[in-house]
Design brief:
This protein has 338 residues and is of the alpha/beta class. It folds into two domains: 5-195, L-asparaginase, N-terminal domain (Rossmann fold, 3-Layer(aba) Sandwich), CATH 3.40.50; 200-335, Rossmann fold (3-Layer(aba) Sandwich). The chain is 33% helix and 19% strand. The protein is built from 13 helices and 16 strands. The strands form four sheets. Strands 4-1-5-6-7-8-11-12 form an eight-stranded mixed beta sheet, sandwiched between helices. A four-stranded parallel beta sheet has the order 13-14-15-16, sandwiched between helices. A two-stranded antiparallel ribbon has the order 2-3. A hairpin with a 2-residue loop joins strand 11 and strand 12 (187-190). Helix 3 (62-74) packs across helix 4 (89-99), helix 4 runs parallel beside helix 12 (310-322) and helix 8 runs antiparallel to helix 13 (327-335). It is globular.
């Protein structure tokens, strides 16, 4: 019986670093190096490895991930594993999920510990990702699962996974849903299928979303935020180059009351999405009154981000703008996320 053909695409990141003469970790290892570090891969799959880039994920761009998605669509493989850095994994995996529509598993993995450290997790995560890509249940439900992230023997849906700690080995989680599968010994144990109605609906409206870059500002709300950045954006004739904005709001969807006028003007100037700074979870819609409550903000024409983390809301808004969607359609796309 032939083994599944798995194509590994390496982008860089901690998993692909090497120490320089001073001992500092630098990008350098390619896809072949990653495969050589995991001899067991040959027993699991027929692997083809390709180096796409050698950069930290903090330096990746939307354009690079769009190009990666187009590349994945052309591969003749039974599954695809992407290796990258952890800094933006939750964003790149979600963007791939919006762009890639295939009947084969697409897995994103990475490493928290660099190869120079004791018990580096990169090789184990790569092996786990390939095992997941080869698993019969995963392959059978590939389209229903969408793009997946595999870290520390847990499998997460791209729309739900977040990096919840900057350095710990168990940095990744899905606070709203938990993992959808786990690896135990040499098998994948399914735990559930993700709810993907909103993503499927978004894909239908997004099409190929192949337009030019559409920079989206990310504005984080905090105690006594004065709104000077919003005022600067509104005062610039070119909106400082931004074509949309995501506001990471407090609680169920609130901002400081002194910002009421600025929020109204921001919504009129640019497609503006509000998402909870709590990191995800369905927001309120009609509970509290006041000039910057969820009721008032929605009446201003601000788009509600639903359960999406602000980082993922920014990814989705950029994709909507690249697709040339009108504001009303963008609001419909986000509305499906709760």
């Amino acid at each position: 019986m032939s083994k599944p053909r798995i194509h590994i695409l390496a982008l860089g990141g901690t998993i692909a670093t090497r120490p320089d003469a001073s001992g500092v970790m630098q990008m350098g290892a390619g896809a072949d190096d990653l495969v050589k570090a995991v001899p067991l891969l040959a027993t699991v799959a027929e692997v083809q490895a390709e180096t796409v880039s050698r950069v930290g994920s903090h330096s990746l761009s939307f354009d690079q991930i769009h190009a990666l998605a187009a590349k994945i669509a052309t591969l003749q493989a039974d599954g695809v594993v992407v290796t990258q850095g952890t800094d933006t994994l939750e964003e790149t995996a979600f963007l791939l999920d919006l762009l890639v529509q295939l009947d084969i598993p697409v897995i994103v993995t990475a490493a928290m510990r660099n190869p120079a450290l004791t018990s580096a997790d990169g090789p184990g995560n790569l092996l786990a990702a390939v095992r997941v890509a080869c698993d019969a249940w995963i392959r059978r439900h590939a389209r229903a699962l969408g793009v997946l992230t595999v870290m520390l023997d847990e499998v997460y849906a791209a729309a739900d996974v977040i990096k919840a700690h900057p350095t710990r080995l168990n940095a990744f989680m899905a606070s709203q849903t938990g993992p959808i599968a786990a690896l135990v010994e040499d098998r994948v144990v399914p735990l559930g299928l993700p709810v993907r109605d909103a993503i499927d609906a978004a894909r239908k409206k997004l099409g190929k979303a192949s337009g030019a870059a559409q920079p989206v500002a990310l504005l984080w709300m905090g105690l006594d935020e004065p709104g000077h950045l919003i005022e600067a954006l509104l005062g610039a004739s070119d909106r400082l180059g931004y074509r949309g904005a995501v506001v990471a709001a407090m609680g169920g969807g609130h901002v400081p009351e002194p910002l009421a006028d600025r929020m109204g003007r921001l919504a009129a100037a640019l497609p503006t999405v509000i998402s909870s700074r709590a990191g995800g979870g369905a927001m309120l819609r009609h509970t509290y009154g006041g000039p910057t409550s969820e009721i008032a903000l929605r009446k201003m024409g601000i788009i509600w981000g639903g359960r999406l983390h602000p980082l993922k809301a920014r990814v989705l808004l950029d994709t909507c703008l690249r697709a040339g969607l009108a504001r009303d359609t963008i609001a419909e796309v986000f509305d499906a996320f709760g």
